[in-house]
């Protein structure tokens, strides 16, 4: 009889816990949200964190979003800080928060746009977002560069910087020497772009700097690393088919496209052009309008006045 009573009590407790599980979990998340609000700083930023903002995304220390822009800024801040995992919570007062999170998580173009504004070493090749009905959002970031690749590339960049970057010279001249070096010492990896051949790591800076082969992603990342060395604000611009550099130089944002300045020829001759060297948006689109049609709402620094 006692066993039956004990079993009944146990079943009642389990039933009550089951019925109120969501309420208990909500209360638990509420405590976590309050704790996060009180400690809303990202202290473990890595050395590749960018401490300046852009029109499209800005760093934030408020991880309780109230709008779609807040969510974009949280994702950007987590990626920009070099995080591999980050958790935040949708507040009860923002009823559409999870819908906005889901929309962003399923929008690869928007995620790629955010990725274009961070340092190459903090950029991701895969990002996964998990969320539940109670508002917990977890971001998992797999980076584009391994620690070993970063070590090798940094050694090469340091070596070349001593040759190509002349203290006291203009930013334009320093960028020109880097531009010319990368193009003269690498070729476009047509085998990868045309047939998916992955012999060379040409889609990242490792390819053009250490293997002599690049596609647009590799050329752009390689140039970015030198722009970071020079302390020049920059980001990547992408269209549906292409990616290149945006550079803030001489108090204006200009385009820099090493890929199109290293054209593929039928004779396989290694040509160096300067047609896409630090040019305005008007000049860019006057030259080429197919692969360079970019979203000016995202990359709005490049809008012509």
In words, what does this structure look like?
With 305 residues, this protein is of the alpha+beta class. The protein folds into two domains: 22-143, no CATH class; 147-302, C8orf32 fold. The protein is 43% helix and 14% strand. It is built from eleven helices and eight strands. It has helices at residues 2-19, 21-38, 68-80, 97-105, 108-115, 147-164, 171-184, 190-195, 206-211, 216-230, 281-287; strands spanning 85-89, 124-131, 136-143, 187-188, 213-214, 234-238, 243-249, 252-256. A three-stranded antiparallel beta sheet has the order 1-3-2. β2 and β3 form a beta hairpin. The termini are far apart. The model has no long low-confidence stretch (mean pLDDT 89).
């Amino acid at each position: 009889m006692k066993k039956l009573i004990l079993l009944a009590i146990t079943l009642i407790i389990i039933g009550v816990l089951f019925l109120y599980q969501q309420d208990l979990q909500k209360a638990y998340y509420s405590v976590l949200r309050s704790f996060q609000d009180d400690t809303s700083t990202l202290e473990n930023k890595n050395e590749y964190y960018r401490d300046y903002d852009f029109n499209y995304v800005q760093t934030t220390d408020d991880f309780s979003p109230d709008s779609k822009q807040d969510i974009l800024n949280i994702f950007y801040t987590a990626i920009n800080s070099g995080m591999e995992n980050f958790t935040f919570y949708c507040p009860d007062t923002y009823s559409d928060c999870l819908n906005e999170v889901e929309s962003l998580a399923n929008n690869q173009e928007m995620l790629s746009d955010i990725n274009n504004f961070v340092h190459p070493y903090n950029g991701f090749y895969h990002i996964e977002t998990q969320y539940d009905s109670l508002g917990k959002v977890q971001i998992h970031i797999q980076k584009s560069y391994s620690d070993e690749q970063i070590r090798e590339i940094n050694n090469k960049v340091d070596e070349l910087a001593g040759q190509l970057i002349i203290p006291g010279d203009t930013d334009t001249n320093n960028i020109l020497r880097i531009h010319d070096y990368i193009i003269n010492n690498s070729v476009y990896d047509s085998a990868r772009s045309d047939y998916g051949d992955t012999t060379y790591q040409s889609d990242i800076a490792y390819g053009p700097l250490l293997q002599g082969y690049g596609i647009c992603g590799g050329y752009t990342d390689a140039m970015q690393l030198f722009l970071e060395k020079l302390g020049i604000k920059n980001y990547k611009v992408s269209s549906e088919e292409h990616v290149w550099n945006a550079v803030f130089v001489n108090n204006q944002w200009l385009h820099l496209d090493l890929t199109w300045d290293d054209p593929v020829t039928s004779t396989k001759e290694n040509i160096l052009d300067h047609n896409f060297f630090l040019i305005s948006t008007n000049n860019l689109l006057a030259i080429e309008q197919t692969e360079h049609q970019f979203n000016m709402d995202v990359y709005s620094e490049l809008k012509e006045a």
